[in-house]
Each structure stands twice: as C-alpha cells, then as structure tokens.
C-alpha cells in the first residue's frame, strides 16, 4: 500500500523503514498534514500522521477526495482528528495506544527532579564557574504528597515512580483501577487532590471535558507554591491562568512537555527566528518554569514500538479493512 508519511523527521524515517521491511511503499514527507498539504497524499491509500498534524474536517475531506481511506496515527492521543468527519468521509483511523508508558512517566519524573533541585539553573551556573548555592534550595520528595490526574498506563507508571521516592500519592480518575492502587495510589476527589498535593501531574487525555482542566478556579484550590507538571496535552492547562498563578506565587514550579500553542513551535529548529508567541516567551522567562518540546515519548524503545505498531496497523488495514488498534467515535 502506498502511504504518505507526514511530519517526517530523520528518526521517524529510520525506525519506520526498519519496521516496514518493504511491506508498504512509504512516501516520507517533511510538511505537517493540514488542509493545504493534503494534496501531497495524491495517489496514496493511507496517510501516517503525528501529534501536531491537523486532521480536522477540511483536511479529512481533502484526503478523501484524493482516494485516502486510512489514517495511521503515530500517537496514542487522537484529539487532532475529527472522527465524525473521518467516518463520514469513509476514512478509517488507527493509533498506537501504548508504546512506552515508562518513557513518558520517566520524563515526567525528570521534570519534577530538575524543577525541585533547579538542575537547569545549576547547570548554567557551574558552566560559568558560579558555584553559589543561593536560589537552588530544593525539598525532600520523601514524605511529600503527589497528585496524579489520570491513572491510565502512563499515570500508573508515574504513581509507581513517585511512591518509590517515598511520596504519598493521591489520584483522581473517573475510572479508578486496582493497578493504580497496587502501584501505591489512594483515590480522592479532584478537589481534595488539588488541595492536598505538593506536586500535581496531569496524565489524562485531552477531550472537550478536560480542556482547560487547570483553570483559575482549580489553581485557586491548589496549595501555595505547588509544582504543576503537564506531560499530557497542552490544552489541559489554561496558559493565561497558569501565568497569573506563577506571578502570584500560587504556582511555585511549572514543568511542561506540552503547550497549548505548540503546533506552531515544537519539533522545529526556530533558533534563528523571532517567535510571535508572547505567552511562550513569558513562560520561558520565569526561573521556576522548565519546558521541553514534547520529548517525553522520545526513547529508542518508544520510537521502535511506535514504528512497529504503525506498520501493523497499515498491514491490517490493507489485509482486513481495519487497523489493529482502530479509533472509533465514542
Ligand atoms: P490512557 O488512556 O492509558 O489513560 C488515560 C487515563 O485518563 C484513563 O485512566 C482515563 O480514565 C483517565 N481520564 C479520562 N478523563 C479524565 C478526567 N477528566 N480526569 C482524570 N482522568 C481522566 O492514556 P496514557 O497512555 O496513560 O496517556 C495519557 C496521555 O498522555 C495521553 O492522552 C496523551 O495525551 C499523553 N501522552 C503524552 C506523550 C508525550 O510525549 N508528552 C506521549 C504519550 C502520551
């Protein structure tokens, strides 16, 4: 099957070529998929898309008009796909539901540790032979309370890691699981979690219900000086409200691997350009904010697993008319 692979970076191409082994004709394309670039899929039965590709209604219609019948997502999240439009256009969608929950949970723990012990600042100081410790004071994680919102695959891994540090772990999820309890989580209401946690970490999907889950009212419920970490999806957090929370001191540390407006920034080298995003630059200016560019998933194990499942989805669609991990309207 001929497949247009959008948002391709050299590492995507290397891992996909290896997993494919000649099974499909992969056409590697650098641009992101959107309504304007959909024409690049001309002659392809399938597209392969990543997190910041736009599979909204207009893109989906443009793809269907060019004969595309399948979209293989190289991600777990599918908030960037208009599933109703895809169904109406006759385009089946499949995703990679899990590749390495460890990769994301471990990166989340890295953000917590770096923010707490100010490793990002210490690194720069030592390079300039500044060995002063003033401003680098951290706190023991042992004995602190961590609030985990969303206890799916990644959330459970994160619960286990933080329980390993000797933290008390509170969790909120509309669907509690024994796996999370076994990992060390105590379920509470969202309000109780926000009021008790020294560290709040987001691991739920982005849906209409969870959009701006962290808003001014919920920030007001948090402990003064709370550490907030988001490695899930940018729009779970109301960025303007978080900036106000940082300015007032209610939020004492912020770790982000995802950002509401990341689609225009992340995965590209923009180091010689002026960025027109004032929120992003404001966030970057706080000493107690640490941002990474959606790299939590980026381990060799995870990329290999994403490539293998993506090829399996493509092959299953070609042979059976549906991916191994289909995404359907809820
Ligand atoms: P998952 O589906 O296994 O778990 C999601 C959990 O969130 C489920 O238990 C679900 O019940 C819960 N949930 C749903 N609505 C909720 C709500 N309103 N409040 C609290 N919990 C709620 O997903 P996962 O594999 O653990 O991934 C979690 C998220 O991590 C994904 O949706 C994705 O957005 C993000 N992610 C980020 C990266 C990265 O590189 N930064 C990589 C992979 C996934």
Secondary-structure blueprint:
Layout: E1 2-5, H1 10-20, E2 25-28, E3 46-49, H2 57-65, E4 70-73, H3 83-89, E5 92-94, H4 101-117, H5 119-127, E6 145-149, H6 153-164, E7 168-172, H7 178-183, E8 185-187, H8 190-196, E9 199-202, H9 216-221, E10 226-230, H10 239-248, E11 251-256, H11 278-285, E12 289-291, H12 300-320
Helix pairs in contact: 1-12, 2-3, 4-6
Explained architecture:
This protein has helices at residues 10-20, 57-65, 83-89, 101-117, 119-127, 153-164, 178-183, 190-196, 216-221, 239-248, 278-285, 300-320, and strands at 2-5, 25-28, 46-49, 70-73, 92-94, 145-149, 168-172, 185-187, 199-202, 226-230, 251-256, 289-291. The chain is α/β, with parallel strands linked by helices and 330 residues long. The chain has 2 domains: 2-99 and 300-327, Rossmann fold; 101-291, NAD(P)-binding Rossmann-like Domain (Rossmann fold, 3-Layer(aba) Sandwich), CATH 3.40.50.720. The strands form 2 sheets. It has a 7-stranded parallel beta sheet with strand order 8-7-6-9-10-11-12, sandwiched between helices. It has a 5-stranded parallel beta sheet with strand order 2-1-3-4-5, with helices on both faces. α2 (57-65) links the parallel β3 and β4 (70-73). α1 packs across α12 (300-320) and α4 crosses α6 (153-164). It starts with a strand and ends in a 10-residue tail after the last helix. The mean pLDDT is 97. The protein binds nicotinamide-adenine-dinucleotide. Residues 76-77, 98, 101, 104, 149-155, 172-175, 203-206, 209-210, 231-233, 257-258, 294, 296-297 line the site of nicotinamide-adenine-dinucleotide (NAD).
